[in-house]
Design a protein that fits this description.
Elongation Factor Tu (Ef-tu), domain 3, 593 residues, binds guanosine-5'-diphosphate, alpha+beta
Length: 593
């Protein structure tokens, strides 16, 4: 959408401010602007958006309108503690101490992200860390030369973007992995864009340097074309040549991470009640809801009362990234906690409160607000609007159930991107947990396929699915899901339909009925006319209208079909201009073998 080339503030007097609150509807926006709702609605229409007064608009859209009307846009400063995830946490500078950097690894598929994360993780164990159980909790820490680095153990930018979208800022540094034999690829560029958008410093790991076909110079050239200029070339981005597979250059890479982190002066206040973000969450059969948290500020302790999203709990156990029981977690430390009442979502913020009562009240208030938000009406985003315009497109509806939250994000990201000649995926529901009867019922209602990722349906659920004719597909590899969905969409494209004429009728009489419109009294001269036919109105050999049958009657009764030699009454959807002598030709779309 283009911003108009109007000078800001040209129309409105100086200092016209608009204060935005989340979930504002059109009426509230108009009030905030001191304008009538009609003016705002008109503005929306001029932007191609049909909205009523109760419509809730997404922030970016409000910003657009407000800006266009010459106001300055400001987000309401939140002081309400129940909205703790929107408040700027203020710490006394003297309480702030150095904390470890949190690093996310991004890059194109197969360029070696997973191998790099594995190599770094294993090196830690080899260096004599106790425990040594490489339990995956979604993040891990490496201790070296007295300092610590935290790595988010879910490579790729899907999780990164999703988390950021939910307000979690859990990455301080991005390591961009580029395979030296392959060079810059689409996801490399996407990763650069994401890191830039998040204003997170970038370190380039030029990987697979052991390969004879490796060409690190080319990587530098290609990235410089994207504004990512190596320090060696006078830019400010560190490039490190590594072989994730052979473990070469890893030490240098970690040195650079430490250096960048020094420059960022990352600090946290370990003294306050803990605040953190959910990296992953899942339902554990024995332990109930389990979440991996990275502490941002404060110290998280066993027994702490907390709120996550709109649920509360009390920390029952803390395990560190090596699977060892711990009593507490300090800033930038990833830990797995139990004691939650529900499975939160990746990106949800955790905040500890002094007592259980407060935590519960705040969680209740947040639940209440969530519910109100939902009642207020569906949010319209710019994306969904563009979607609306093309809603004639075909969609493959999916219900996705997975074992771990991080996977939801990765899967959704991959699947939502698929677009095959306008055919795409619509994710109806995507949650963590087993496939339930409820999922099957939703699939039935929404004409969806159920995808299970590392989860299995019970026999009862399977039976219900069979009974309802719902397809359940089970997977354990993300890319396999993508592959199959693409194949399925291509399959949806394949059957070609051809229009086949099934009958003709001649119009012999016209009845105008005020509430219903024109009914044509017809005589079927050929074939058959069916209730769900497509019809053409032919006048003197010219097609004057094409559309659908609205009703088909034999005398006063609705008929499913009327054969040649019989009379019938026909009305056509949105067409009243039928004349005596017209021929109504009926046809159906039939699949071509
Ligand atoms: P990801 O998709 O980015 O996570 O990539 P992977 O870590 O799964 O690596 C893809 C393939 O590249 C695997 O077969 C790895 O063994 C291989 N690979 C990764 N790093 C290196 C490397 O430094 N040298 C070589 N020769 N192969 C590598």
């Amino acid at each position: 959408m283009q911003k108009k080339n109007v000078k800001r503030g040209a129309k409105a007097p100086e200092n016209k401010k608009f204060i935005y609150k989340e979930g504002m509807n059109v009426a509230e926006i108009a009030e905030g602007l001191g304008l009538s709702a009609a003016v705002v609605i008109k503005k929306l229409i001029s932007l191609g958006i049909m909205a009523n007064v109760n419509q809730v608009l997404e922030q970016d859209m409000v910003e657009l309108i407000v800006d266009d009307l010459g106001y300055t846009f400001e987000i309401e400063k939140v002081t309400d503690i129940t909205r703790y995830d929107e408040i700027d946490i203020v710490n006394d500078p003297k309480d702030l101490v150095k904390r470890p950097p949190i690093v996310t690894v991004m890059g194109h598929v197969d360029h070696g992200k997973t191998t790099l994360l594995d190599t770094i993780r294993k090196a830690r164990v080899a260096q004599g860390e106790a425990g040594g159980i490489t339990q995956h909790i979604g993040a891990y820490q490496v201790k070296r030369k007295g300092s610590v680095i935290t790595f988010i153990d879910t490579p790729g930018h899907a999780a990164f973007t999703e988390m950021r979208a939910r307000g979690a800022k859990v990455t301080d540094i991005v390591i961009l992995v580029v395979a030296a034999d392959d060079g810059v690829m689409p996801q490399t560029i996407e990763a650069v864009d994401h890191a830039k958008a998040a204003k997170v410093p970038l370190i380039v790991a030029v990987n697979k340097i052991d390969k004879p076909t490796a060409n690190p110079e080319r990587v530098m050239t290609q990235l410089s074309e994207r504004g990512v200029i190596a320090e060696a070339w006078g830019g400010d981005i560190p490039f490190v040549e590594v072989s994730a597979l052979k473990g070469e250059g890893i030490d240098e890479l970690l040195d650079v991470v430490e250096l960048v982190s020094e420059m960022e002066e990352l600090k946290a206040n370990p003294k306050r009640l803990a605040i953190g973000s959910v990296i992953e969450a899942r339902l554990d059969r024995g332990r109930g809801p389990v979440a991996t948290i990275i502490v941002e500020h404060g110290t998280l302790r066993v027994g702490d009362n907390f709120v996550i999203g709109s649920t509360y709990g009390r920390v029952r156990t803390i395990h560190d990234d090596l699977g060892r029981l711990a009593k507490q977690a300090t800033p930038a430390q990833p830990v797995e906690i139990t004691g939650l009442n529900d499975v939160p979502q990746a990106g949800d913020m955790l905040m500890v409160f002094a007592d259980e009562r407060t935590a519960r009240d705040i969680a209740e208030e947040r639940t209440h607000r969530d519910r109100e938000g939902q009642l207020k009406g569906q949010k319209r985003t710019l994306d969904s609007l563009f979607g609306d315009m093309e809603s004639a497109e075909k969609e493959l509806n999916l219900i996705i159930k997975v074992d771990v939250h991080g996977t939801t994000e990765a899967l959704n990201g991959l699947l939502e991107k698929i677009d095959i000649e306008g055919f795409h995926v619509n994710i109806v529901r995507s949650t963590v947990g087993a496939i339930t009867e409820n999922d099957i019922l939703l699939a039935e209602a929404s004409d969806a396929i159920v995808i299970g990722f590392n989860v299995r349906p019970s026999a009862a659920v399977r039976n219900l699915a069979d009974e309802k004719g719902i397809e359940i597909r089970l997977y354990s590899v993300i890319y396999k899901v993508q592959e199959d969905i693409i194949a399925a969409l291509q399959g949806m494209l394949e059957p070609e339909f051809e229009e086949t004429v099934i009958g003709q009728a001649e119009v012999r009489d016209i009845f105008k009925i005020s509430r219903i419109g024109t009914i044509a009294g017809c005589f079927v001269t050929d074939g058959v006319i069916e209730r769900d036919s497509l019809v053409r109105v032919i006048r003197e050999s010219i097609v004057v209208y094409e559309g659908k049958l609205a009703s088909l009657k034999r005398f006063k009764d609705d008929a499913r079909s009327v054969r040649a030699g019989y009379e019938c009454g026909i009305s056509i959807v949105n067409y009243n201009d039928i004349k005596v002598g017209d021929i109504i030709e009926a046809s159906k779309m039939k699949e071509v073998e």
